[in-house]
Amino acid sequence: MHALSSLRWKIALTTTAVCCMVAAALGILVHNVVAAQIVGEVRKDAGTALEHALSHYEYGTTHGDVNIVLDPPQLPRPLRDLVARGDTGSMVGTHDGKPVMWAAAPADQQALAVWIPFEGTRERLRDIDTAILASAALAAGVVALAGLFLADRISRRLATTAAVARRISAGDLDARVGFPTRTDDRRPGRRSRDRDEVRDVAQALDLMAGSLQERLEAEKRFTADVAHELRTPLTGSLAAAALLPEGRPKEMINDRLKALHLLTEDLLEISRLESGVERADLARVELGRAVERAVAAAGPAVSVRVVRDAAVLTDRRRLDRILTNLLVNAHKHGRPPIEVTVDGPVVTVRDHGPGYPPELIEQGPQRFRTGDPGRGRGHGLGLTIVAGQAAVLEIALSFANAPDGGALTTLRLPVGRLPDGS
């Protein structure tokens, strides 16, 4: 969410920065044009006054204007030098400490000059600059708000798409973004005139989720069908193998058939769990005693420590299945000692072997994936069943490795009242 918020502000700030740069460029251009026009008008007035003064001077008459001076000492030096070369010119200077527009021309080896007050022109230019700055600030503020609004809409839609993508990656394949589709987009071979890239990404995500869901459903149906079809011939094969004469061949055949039968039963159980039809038969259970009985039935060489007992809501049969699979996995892939600890509603199962593979810790158990093949044979179904049964019982399940080595599985069971209030 922070990244999307950052995107929102980046878009808004970028829009505002571009607006400010455009406003600054336009402001400078307008200032230069208006200043040149206003100063040109004042310069023109000064030139007209200078022409009148020259005509009166030529005929020896007096104009009577105090702004006309012959060779004034306050005439700017550059303008004085220009007149000395026989040219006529004008420039901004000062007269009695006030800004004026001087215009001067040669007259009998002297400089005949006129001046026009320039203070009003400067104030007018300052007012224009203030108006330009205020307009630029207002435009930048409006554009910033508009950019923030548009960026917020984009970021919200992206945040919705990202949230749906996270739900899909977490296993919720029914999640969809559901942005509306335009009529043009529904017509085959027709391209929408108004492109909406965010909507395109959302629709592509929805299509991907739908396709993925269809493929996974097909895979689940195939697995369930194969397991179901194998169940009958396997039962017959086991019965036929029992009729074989005693000996090593019979033991090998029975061993392989039993392994295949267990694999088939596991696949059927996974199919039922993934179908979402499994329902737990909840009851209040003393967790410490339930764990002790489950561990005792699973076999020796496992130590149980009850730090603090607790009454939890669970299904004894499914809880036994979870603990049995965890202990079988610890015996097969870990090393003793194997320890089971009960602390309130939390159960931990730990061995001292090489630990869980990193991909199992990050992604959770997956069928027919056991990590490093060198850690022992397996199909990855035991922990998959553990995760499925834990989901049915609403048990918080986590896989990790102990700091000093060994696989560590934590189960946090729900504590509360039964639906009937008991």
UniProtKB/TrEMBL annotation:
GO terms for molecular function: kinase activity. Its EC number is 2.7.13.3. CDD domains: HAMP (cd06225), HisKA (cd00082). It is found in: Cell membrane. Signal peptide: none annotated. InterPro entries: HAMP_dom (IPR003660), HATPase_C_sf (IPR036890), HATPase_dom (IPR003594), His_kinase_dom (IPR005467), HisK_dim/P_dom (IPR003661), HisK_dim/P_sf (IPR036097), TCS_sensor_his_kinase (IPR050428). Residues 225-417 form the Histidine kinase domain. Gene3D superfamilies: 1.10.287.130, 6.10.340.10, Histidine kinase-like ATPase, C-terminal domain. The keyword Phosphoprotein applies. This is histidine kinase. The lineage of its organism: Bacteria, Bacillati, Actinomycetota, Actinomycetes, Kitasatosporales.
